[in-house]
Design a protein that fits this description.
With 422 residues, the chain is α+β, with helices and mostly antiparallel strands. 26% of the residues lie in helices and 26% in strands. The longest helix has 17 residues. It is globular, with a radius of gyration of 21 Å. The protein starts with a strand and ends in a 25-residue tail after the last helix.
Length: 422
């Protein structure tokens, strides 16, 4: 088979790396790809929202299945477009993708279908949101969320009313996320352990992958602003199977009741609170960087899982994994998630021996790699023990150099000694 993967990040590099292990694949294409992906797949520089050109590329190159990595094409309806052309594609349709594209839609969906989540209020006027904060009983610590897509940066965890007001003004007045900030959610601040639940869904059956834990804050000890993710590790066992089943059973009931055409990946960000697990958010695609920590452990052919999902036959499958743990650390440009520079030459990637390097924001010119984004590389190491996987990944990072590179030094240390705390 010929496969096309859409996207340009570490997630897409990991997906292609895993797909290349399938004996059923003849050739892999990527739109648009990055420096690292260009070494293992044929890349084409096409806008990921130009569905007409992408479909023409698919037809001209005899692509059998298209796999969508990022959320933006899904939210803009690429699956719906491909269906009109009778082309096979992996991912949920536009209506289903509102579960990620609109946090308001997702929260109301959770409430309607008894999926445990934090209490919340929705506002479309800045003054109303601020008035709510200051109306007795006044809100102090809370979470402020922009409704739309904001590349993982539209969430503000606030400890004071002043921080919450500033976050609302940034979103609604300063429009730092553009139209994504037309509405805001003021949400109860939950406390507990976070975990990522990622599962295949064919509309009838949900097949969860192993649990993983992401690290959102830019600095060690979970300090600094939220990012798209600074690293992840797997497996973890934070949520019990009974609670996972309940969450996903209610989700399935919801998509059936709403007549959502959901064939792809459902991601539930979970907080395990004193009152049990609660869903923080839904995503409708593989997590990034969780995918870079899960796929190196996956034993089952990824292409088989994709085909079973598209065909609606997930009930016939059980997923198998290799033994051990995987730790994936994200290396970013200095200044990320704020302003950062690109075009810095990257040294030492070819010297990494005990880990795999997934490229995120890189370009390849004149046989050299250069930085080309905020999140630049993902270094993933596998070992039979979590402690040794951590050692491996940080030893591997030592040989990689570029100007102003930044990474957290504590990825996965939450999981040592069974403590799951820093």
């Amino acid at each position: 088979m010929n496969i096309l993967v859409i996207g340009s990040g570490g997630r897409e590099h990991a997906i292609i790396w895993k797909l290349k292990q399938s004996k059923h694949i003849k050739k892999i294409f990527c739109i648009p790809g990055n420096g690292g992906i260009s070494q293992i797949a044929e890349c084409a520089k096409i806008d990921i929202l130009d569905f007409k050109k992408i479909s023409e590329f698919v037809i001209n190159n005899k692509v059998d299945i298209t796999v969508v990595g990022p959320e933006l094409p899904l939210s803009e309806g690429i699956v719906d477009y491909f269906k009109t052309k009778k082309l096979d594609i992996f991912g949920p349709d536009k209506k289903s993708s509102q579960l990620e594209a609109s946090k308001v839609f997702a929260k109301r969906f959770m409430k309607k279908y008894n999926i445990p989540t934090a209490s919340f209020e929705v506002f479309n006027k800045c003054e109303d949101a601020i008035k709510y904060l200051n109306t007795p009983p006044e809100v102090d610590s809370c979470v402020i969320k922009a409704d739309g897509l904001a590349a993982g940066k539209g969430v503000f965890v606030c400890n004071t009313r002043t921080e919450a007001e500033e976050a609302i003004k940034k979103i609604m007045l300063d429009k730092v996320f553009g139209d994504a900030g037309k509405e805001v959610i003021i949400e109860e601040k939950l406390r507990g352990l976070e975990v990522s639940l990622i599962a295949f869904c064919d509309g009838k059956t949900i097949l969860p992958l192993i649990q993983s834990q992401d690290h959102k804050r830019v600095n060690d000890l979970d300090k600094g602003p939220n990012t798209g993710g600074m690293g992840a590790y797997a497996p973890v066992k934070i949520v019990n199977s009974k609670d996972i089943k309940k969450i996903f059973d209610n989700f399935l009931n919801g998509i059936k009741s709403e007549s959502l055409n959901f064939k792809g990946i459902i991601y539930a960000g979970i907080m395990l609170t004193g009152a049990g697990p609660k869903v923080l958010e839904f995503n409708v695609r593989f997590g990034d960087p969780e995918t870079q920590a899960i796929l190196p452990l996956l034993k089952t052919d990824l292409l088989d899982l994709i085909i079973l999902t598209i065909d609606g036959n997930l009930d016939a499958c059980k997923i198998k994994y290799n033994e051990g743990y995987c730790v994936s650390v994200v290396i970013t440009s200095g200044g990320y998630p704020g302003k950062y520079e690109v075009g810095k030459e990257i040294y030492g990637i070819s010297n990494v021996e005990d880990a795999v390097v997934f490229h995120s924001g890189t370009k390849y010119e004149n046989k050299k790699y250069y930085t080309n984004g905020g999140r630049v590389l993902n270094v993933s190491a596998v070992d039979s023990s979590l402690e040794n996987a951590i050692i491996k990944v940080y030893e591997s990072i030592k040989v990689i150099k570029f100007e102003n590179m930044h990474f957290r030094k504590d990825i996965a240390k939450k999981g040592l000694s069974g403590g799951l705390t820093i």
